[in-house]
Design goal:
Blueprint (H helix, E strand, L loop, with lengths): L1 H33 L8 H32 L4 E2 L9 H24 L2 H12 L14 H8 L1 H8 L2 E2 H17 L9 H4 L10 H10 L10 H5 L13
Parallel strand pairs: 1-2
Helix pairs in contact: 1-2, 1-7, 2-5, 3-7
The structure holds zinc ion (2 copies).
Amino acid sequence: MLLALILSIFAMTAIVAVRYLAVSGAFAALTTRVRPGYHDKLGPQIRREIGWSLASAAIYGAPAGLVAFGWDRFGWTMIYRDWNAYPLWYLPLSVLIYLFAHDTWFYWTHRWMHRPRLFRVAHAVHHASRPPTAWAAMSFHPIEALTGAVVVPLLVFLVPIHIAMLGVVLSVMTIMGVTNHMGWEMFPRWLVRSPVGGWIITASHHQLHHERYMCNFGLYFRFWDRLCKTDRGLSDSFER
Ligand SMILES: [Zn+2]
Ligand SMILES: [Zn+2]
């Protein structure tokens, strides 16, 4: 049984690492086409980003592997497979609940990690990416990685979710984590500058966090930043 648990943790770590390399690699390749020269002189930084990210993969993989093992063996968690177990309208709602809960957790732990002493220990690694690249998506000190790694493994015990919707949540998490750091905006300007864009975080918003530090702390939504008056709008470094 211990061997099965270790294998599960190992498998989850491998999945997170391969997913990171594939998605960051794809968007980094796209970046060299869309913004030629963006990665020039960032070679040493990118190698550090990849190193920290792969260490984070193991930290993300451990709780995920434990929960996956418990789900398979003992029926842990509120993850369900039957499409009719809950009303259909609950499918998109569950995705929103997960994203909002993750965003809330991230906003407050992120602000907390910007306190000077903790910043130096736990969060300076992430801000060593100047400017960030697609490889910085999981470039976190192990303490910061741990704060992120527990969110979804805890939520699956509290909020029911269909396995496919969990896949949607993890895909949004991965793709936005990468694209918010890649150094250019993939969404059309009219959308980013629209009222809807006023509530959603894309690269233009998170880039400003990497430029100015003490603002734009959110992950997916601008809700907490706007409520707590830490929203400073969008970076203008992308305007071409
Ligand atoms: Zn960042
Ligand atoms: Zn920060």
